[in-house]
Amino acid sequence: MKKILAVVRREFVERVRTKAFVISTVLLPVFMVAMVLLPVLMMSGGDRTSRVALVDASTTNLGQRVSQALESEKIGKGADAKSRYTVQVFPATGDDLARVRDGLIAETGFSSSKKKDGWNGVMVLTDETLATGKLAYYGGNVGSLEAMSKLQRVVSSALTGVRLAKSGVDTALLKEAMKPADMDTTKVTDGKQTGQSGTESYLIAYFMGFILYIAILIYGQQTMTSVIEEKTSRIMEVLTSSLTPFQMLLGKVFGVGLAGLAQMAIWGGTVLVLSSQRLPLAGMFGMSADAAQSFPIPSMPPGLLVVFLLYFALGFMLYGALYAAIGAMCNTIQETQQYAIFVTVFIIVGFFAVFALIKDPTGPLGVTMSYVPFFAPFTMPVRWSLTSVPPMELVLSLTLMVLALLACVWLAARIYRTGILMYGKKPSWGELWRWIRA
Amino acid sequence: MTAASVRIESVTKRFSGHTAVNRLSMEIPSGGIFGLLGPNGAGKSTTIRLIMGILEPDEGRIVLFDSPHNSRALSQRIGYLPEERGLYKKMKVLDHLIFLGETKGIGRADARKRAQAWLERLGVSDWAQKKVEDLSKGMQQKVQFAGALLHEPELVILDEPFSGLDPVNAQVMKDIVVAIAAEGRTVLFSTHVMEQAERMCDRIAIIARGEMVVNGTVAQVKEDFGGRHVALGFTHDKARAANILADRALIARVDDYGASAELQMADGADPEQLLAALVREGVGLRRFEVVEPSLHAIFIAKVGADAATAPAGVAA
């Protein structure tokens, strides 16, 4: 036991001291913050008021109705919210439609300072619009799917209103009838509200899967590399004379795992500090307090945290043992690739299962995968965060994981015992089998 | 039965294709310096790895300290310097020694004290906070040597301990090995440098092709080898000695070093006859001495000239 601790300490201390560790500890949060901030900043760019020129070639004064609908769209909520669109209607007849339209288009879509950008877009309404829904829009922002679908939605509902009014429905009633649904989502676990919104659950699930994926890939590979290093530096021979393969393997996997956890703890701490300070920080980035509030930093309920850490630790060691065994089988990093690919496939399948689960947390795929030890570390915490998992299922899944872990460590220790002293030649599958049985 | 540190009983180890150790039996008594000699590829390192439990014998068994446990369970009592030197390159020297001590079951604080003392003794204490990779090969070897001895084992197993060291460092190591033996501990080391073994060892075993060739105390081995031996030193006209040296009625075996030679007299031949013949031919002599056979001569006689001509300093 004391010897295992010595190995754990060595692995941990030597790893944490490296430049690579320090750099990755600092850089990854920067990278992740950028990943979160960039889309927010980009999306907030879409929240500018668009100037729309409305060419009305209809005979039913359709332009005015659509323009009213567009102008009543607001950005954000509350009394001081800006209009999403400013609209100017240009009446046209069938004859001069093309001329009016082309004249407006000629003033549209300038982003440089060469010429004043007259319009963000030109919308053309005709009689056919009311009849079949056909209309045309010319603009600089047609590539933005979100902006287009929003615009289309507004026009659609305006058209619906006009059509209904035409068939004699009262305008007041119409307004009442067309009020959109506004749904607030709250996650329920064990009959209790958790206070998490749907977005938060989703973010947590995604975040957990991502962290595990990154951690296993990076630290698993590190475990493998460090075994190879021990073989090439021949230190292994001294170690095998005083340590059992089990001690070496367990010490290594634990030590590397602790280094990984330490890094996670630093990152977790950073997130906590950042989220508690998000208002002043948002100010620094020039975001309104409102935008900062809407930018969710999920909190993890303690139950989920425990489940996540449990699966994280088990999954990490499971894959760590596999990677160490691969390291013991090979002599160079290049050689490991053909074996490591199998493990990587498991990890990737596990990671992508998270997306399937987010879509359908109670489906048979997710349930099955949370029993398979190689996938459970990814899928079970996600299931737990998205739906309520019966305790029996959790216990069963954890038991399977522990059994698989023991089996893997045993198997890896067998390979380790023989493989760590094999220099020069790669084992065949047959030889590998003999090592395990020996 | 005397107390034996290591008892090897009819051990065989095969690797795919060849037998590295073939029904080898030997006993390394407690105390003193035991030399394991043999040409390259004789199975010295394999034998040592078998003793260390790094390899398992296919047949036979190895008993350490007359105990039923294997070397890993007894590793606190054994120090091991493998032939393939290896340290963690990125670790600091002192940390590394502490770690090696810990793997032998020494407490951390104690290990630190001992490591510092050893670095002092080996004259590398200035390097304690340097990374291993910054050290020269010779220095790394000294560090690893210290790592093998840190826990004051009662059995020290050194595989080619002096290879790759300059004379000064080899001297330092030699002194330490002798000091260990003087404390009543046991040293087993392998080498193919016969002069060294001859000077240091109480007992030797020569193995070749995985089999025991000679085994016993150095004096006993020499006595058993028998014959009368003459050491010659030439000054000039060595060519004139060629015919005499080729005379099989006079001389059984010649080990020619150029400026000197070691001869084994043929049965019934007299060293005086040889001296007379050499003087008659006018060979210039600076030395003519009737000597004990050197281990080197015994080694070559027993193992064969081809095996012994392999360059010194190459690990077997």
Q: State the strand order across the main sheet of chain A.
A: 4-1-5-6
CATH topology of the largest domain in chain B: Rossmann fold
Number of strand segments of chain A: 8
Q: Determine the strand fraction of chain A and express it as a percent band.
A: 5-15%
Tell me the overall shape of chain A.
elongated
Helix content of chain A: 55-70%
Kindly state the number of beta strands of chain B: 13
User: Biggest sheet of chain B: strands side by side, in what order?
Assistant: 5-6-7-3-8-9
Please describe the biggest sheet of chain A, giving its number of strands, its sense, and whether it closes into a barrel: 4 strands, mixed
Low-confidence segments of chain A, given as residue ranges, are none
The sequence of SSEs of chain A as H and E is HHEHEEEHEHEHHEEHHHHHHHHHHH
**End-to-end distance of chain B:** 32 Å
What is the count of helical runs of chain A?
18
Q: What proportion of the residues of chain B is helical, as a percent range?
A: 25-40%
Name the CATH superfamily assignment of the largest domain in chain B: P-loop containing nucleotide triphosphate hydrolases
How many structural domains of chain B? Answer: 2
Average pLDDT over all residues of chain A: 77
Q: How would the blueprint of this fold be written?
A:
The complex is a heterodimer of chains A (438) and B (316).
Chain A: H1 2-16, H2 19-45, E1 50-56, H3 62-71, E2 74-75, E3 82-83, E4 85-91, H4 97-105, E5 121-125, H5 127-132, E6 136-139, H6 145-166, H7 171-177, E7 188-189, E8 192-193, H8 198-232, H9 235-242, H10 245-276, H11 278-284, H12 289-294, H13 302-329, H14 333-359, H15 364-369, H16 376-386, H17 391-419, H18 429-437
Parallel strand pairs in A: 1-4, 1-5
Antiparallel strand pairs in A: 2-3, 5-6, 7-8
Helix pairs in contact in A: 1-10, 3-6, 8-10, 8-13, 8-14, 8-16, 10-13, 10-17, 13-14, 13-16, 13-17, 14-16, 17-18
Chain B: E1 4-15, E2 18-29, E3 32-37, H1 44-51, E4 59-64, E5 78-81, H2 93-103, H3 108-121, H4 137-149, E6 155-159, H5 167-182, E7 186-191, H6 194-200, E8 203-208, E9 211-217, H7 218-225, E10 229-234, H8 242-245, E11 251-256, E12 260-265, H9 271-281, E13 285-291, H10 295-303, H11 305-308
Parallel strand pairs in B: 3-7, 3-8, 5-6, 6-7
Antiparallel strand pairs in B: 1-2, 1-4, 8-9, 10-12, 10-13, 11-12
